[in-house]
């Protein structure tokens, strides 16, 4: 938590963002990174053959940490024979984009995928600019901010100049040279109606992609989000879940985009699935692999210090229900919107249920522009944990 500092009042944020403003935000990646050549070498024969047989093409958009929920979700997809992971795009959220880029590259190296899966840096700040100047005022006016992610520390100058070295050392691979929004558009056009976008952090990169390249919208197969608190209070502010609190305008743009299918995995389900020492021991009790070693090295001391420790797995649920839809036991149609007024509800997810009067030909009651999405409210926990442990313990 940062210290509270009195800040001057700022104008209210606007809800509608022009394409010109979005274009201006493409300063997210420092010039030193933007000019770096892509370091993606051709896939090894075995990896290329596996990718060619995969049935699902995926881009993961992440605010990556070290063995955080984004990393586990990435490991789950990368270890599945069903998935051709086209790339990992990185956004600021839990971590700054420079940190997330380094962690993504290094963890892909650990599972021997860095030569095949490109990592692409993207939005380094929310669409409306840095929130840091207003955070103290937000806490004073709107309620205590429990978790601020990247805002807890200064933004690094480069993915190779972090406050502390990544697990296992800095990556040898380098990020691709294009911006994340451009990469998303290129891949969707290359594989029309085949690409699933995972939006596991703030939706900045996806918002930039659909506003900069609107022609891709009908070509996206589906979008899966981890975000929002639909029927429960927020976990960052009293109103908002972290991912959508960090960049409410981008979440609003993404959710209001008429994609063919959108699935939201909110805190409503994520905060009811607990990771404990029991699940940890199932993972580290498996074969010795780079992933299980990482679990032992990073989580082992935490469970030794507190055997009753519990945590949520958030993004891992998105990968699980994608790989095995039968894990989802309660899914509802909702019309979702995001409150982008700069006030106590800034970043709140607003859900509208379909009309119950369809047979009477009454219109469904939702604001113009909102889209019907599917919202996951419950899962089969035994099936989820079995899949989780299986994918975390598979040989590399």
From TrEMBL:
Hydrolase listed as a keyword: yes
Keyword Signal applies: yes
Signal peptide: 1-34
Keywords, comma-separated and alphabetical: Glycosidase, Hydrolase, Signal
Organism superkingdom: Bacteria
GO BP: any one term: purine nucleoside catabolic process
Residue ranges annotated for the Inosine/uridine-preferring nucleoside hydrolase domain, each copy included: 58-386
One Pfam family named in its UniProt record: IU_nuc_hydro
A molecular function GO annotation: purine nucleosidase activity
One annotated Gene Ontology cellular component of this protein: cytosol
Protein name, entry field: Nucleoside hydrolase
Organism in which the protein naturally occurs: Micromonospora costi
């Amino acid at each position: 938590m940062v210290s509270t500092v009195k800040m001057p009042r700022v104008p209210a944020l606007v809800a509608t963002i022009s394409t010109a403003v979005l274009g201006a935000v493409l300063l997210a990646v420092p010039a030193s990174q933007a000019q770096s050549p892509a370091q993606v070498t051709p896939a090894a024969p075995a990896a290329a053959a596996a990718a060619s047989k995969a049935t699902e093409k995926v881009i993961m958009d992440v605010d990556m940490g070290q063995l955080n929920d984004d990393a586990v979700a990435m490991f789950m997809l990368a270890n599945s024979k069903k998935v051709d992971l086209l790339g990992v795009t990185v956004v600021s959220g839990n971590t700054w984009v420079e940190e997330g880029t380094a962690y993504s590259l290094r963890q892909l190296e650990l599972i021997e995928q860095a030569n095949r899966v490109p990592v692409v840096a993207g939005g380094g700040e929310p669409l409306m600019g840095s929130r840091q100047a207003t955070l103290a005022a937000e806490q004073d006016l709107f309620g205590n901010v429990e978790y601020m992610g990247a805002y807890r520390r200064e933004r690094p100058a480069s993915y190779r100049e972090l406050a502390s070295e990544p697990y296992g050392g800095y990556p040898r691979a380098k990020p691709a040279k294009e911006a994340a929004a451009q990469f998303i558009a290129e891949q969707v056009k290359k594989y029309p109606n085949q690409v699933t976008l995972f939006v596991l952090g703030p939706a900045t990169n996806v918002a930039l992609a659909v506003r900069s390249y609107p022609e891709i919208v009908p070509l996206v197969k589906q979008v899966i989000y981890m975000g929002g608190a639909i029927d429960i209070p927020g976990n960052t502010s009293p109103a908002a879940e972290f991912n959508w609190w960090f960049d409410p305008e981008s979440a609003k743009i993404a959710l209001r985009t008429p994609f063919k299918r959108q699935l939201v995995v909110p805190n409503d389900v994520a905060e009811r699935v607990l990771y404990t020492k029991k699940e940890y021991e199932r993972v580290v009790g498996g074969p010795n692999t780079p992933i299980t070693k990482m679990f032992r090295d990073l989580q082992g001391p935490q469970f030794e210090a507190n055997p009753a420790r519990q945590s949520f797995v958030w993004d891992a649920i998105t990968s699980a229900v994608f790989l095995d839809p039968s894990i989802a036991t309660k899914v509802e149609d909702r019309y979702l919107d995001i409150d982008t007024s700069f006030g106590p509800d800034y970043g709140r997810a607003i859900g509208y249920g379909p009309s119950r009067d369809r047979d009477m030909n009454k219109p469904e009651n939702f604001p113009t522009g909102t889209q019907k999405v599917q919202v996951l409210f419950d899962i089969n926990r035994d099936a989820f944990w079995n899949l989780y442990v299986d994918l975390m313990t598979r040989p590399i």
